[in-house]
Design brief:
The protein is of the alpha/beta class. It is 40% helix and 14% strand. The chain contains 18 helices and eleven strands. The strands form three sheets. The protein has a six-stranded parallel β-sheet, sandwiched between helices. β7 (234-239) and β8 form a beta hairpin. The chain is elongated and about 85 Å long.
């Protein structure tokens, strides 16, 4: 069966993580994605750590399955190349600041006039509107600005960045959902649309219950360390050989935990009878539980607590995660090949579609790897035209 976006043409003008991740998911689902880069390449091509072939793992993580062309957007003939791409495209996405996009002639209005069925996606740091619309936005800065950093780490501790670029990656998912929605609408109306996503809007939406608690009840969330402020016990505990995450967020789970620990005193203690009382007496509860956990290693507790139906998780490193049978069973390690046939491993898609899903067959492309192919076979430029474009610095 053909993948669901087989035949869909996507022009990816975006950089770094959010936009490229969105476009990679489209490629995984079968779209023909053409990545356009400046002659010096996407900036994250050079970010460490580098893979054995010299390509950045950052770049490789979000550009699987694409074809690549270089295009100097400041060149007089760049608009000619871009317009030909837009004319045949179903989706164009970019991550330029609004003012930069306007200066380069990249706008929904202009592209819509060329191709009324086009879905135009713009991804920004702080949104398309408002006084900060042209403020550059990176994941770290938006983690700070939008609130997630205020609830990460420990009370009285310094600011702590979340260890993964979750705002970037989640923005890519939001953009993918918006594009899929616009493509569905196009099936009914025959017309394209302008969809917008930003790191700021994504990060604010991810505040979730923290944001609603403030809006509705004036409750300002606090840093929560390894756990959550709404349940107890629900955090990391020190074992004989390291830490373990244990959760008993409701009263039935609390009873099962006490049974597993063989501690009738804890089970009957009125201070810990309900989640509300356990929260009030958390400072007394945690040392009592940790006294138990320190007697055995984490593996012992995982086996025992799972046997009793208690939520538990080891704190695994990336090396352990990517070798775990459960991760492999759900196809979260994907294998593709580069132009030389060399095997390349990456991460799978965060969702699965039974019929018509998959993984892009190409590894992340070399800079400008498909320039001649795209210009000649897709856009109809002659070999002489391509030579002239190269000579003039357009590609």
């Amino acid at each position: 069966m053909a993948r669901i976006y087989e035949g869909l043409k996507v022009v990816d003008l975006s950089r770094v993580l959010a936009g490229p991740f969105c476009a990679q998911m489209l490629a995984d689902m079968g779209a023909d994605v053409i990545k356009i880069e400046a002659p010096e390449g996407d900036e994250n091509r050079r970010w460490p750590p580098l893979m054995p072939n010299g390509l950045s793992s950052n770049y490789a993580s979000v550009n699987r399955g694409k074809r690549a062309i270089t295009l100097n957007m400041k060149s007089p003939r760049a608009a000619e190349v871009l317009d030909r791409l837009v004319r045949r495209a179903d989706v164009v996405l970019h991550s330029f600041l609004p003012a930069t996009a306007a200066r380069l002639g990249i706008s929904y209005e202009r592209f819509h006039a060329i191709n009324p069925r086009l879905v135009f996606c713009s991804i920004t740091g702080y949104g398309e509107r408002g006084e900060l619309a042209n403020k550059p936005g990176y994941d770290l800065m938006v983690q700070a600005f939008a609130g997630p950093m205020s609830v990460t780490g420990y009370e009285e501790g310094p600011p702590v960045r979340t260890g993964v670029s979750f705002v970037d990656m989640a923005t890519g998912m939001s953009a993918y959902a918006a594009i899929a929605s616009a493509l569905y609408a196009r099936e009914r109306t025959g017309r394209g649309n302008w969809v917008r996503a930003s790191l700021l809007e994504t990060a604010v939406s991810i505040l979730g219950y923290h944001g609603v608690a403030w809006l509705q009840a004036g409750v300002r969330p606090r840093k929560q360390g390894s756990g959550g402020a709404n349940q107890a016990p629900y955090q990391a505990f020190h074992c004989a050989d390291g830490f373990l995450l244990v959760g008993a967020p409701n009263n039935a789970a609390w009873q099962r935990l006490c049974t597993a620990l063989e501690d009738e005193g804890l089970k009957l203690d009125p201070r810990f009878a309900t989640n509300e009382s356990r929260l009030r007496h958390r400072d007394e509860l945690v040392p009592l539980l940790e006294e138990h956990f320190r007697r055995q290693d984490a593996a012992h507790w995982v086996t025992l607590l799972e046997k009793h139906g208690v939520a538990v998780a080891p704190i695994q490193g990336v090396d352990q995660v990517l070798a775990h049978p459960q991760v492999l069973a759900n196809a979260m390690v994907a294998t593709t090949h580069d132009a030389n046939g060399r095997e390349w491993k990456g991460l799978g898609t965060p969702f699965k579609i039974e019929d018509g899903g998959g993984i892009g067959s190409r590894a992340a492309p070399a800079l400008g790897e498909h320039s001649e192919q795209i210009l000649q076979e897709d856009l109809g430029f002659s070999a002489e035209d391509v030579a002239a474009l190269r000579q003039g610095g357009t590609i």
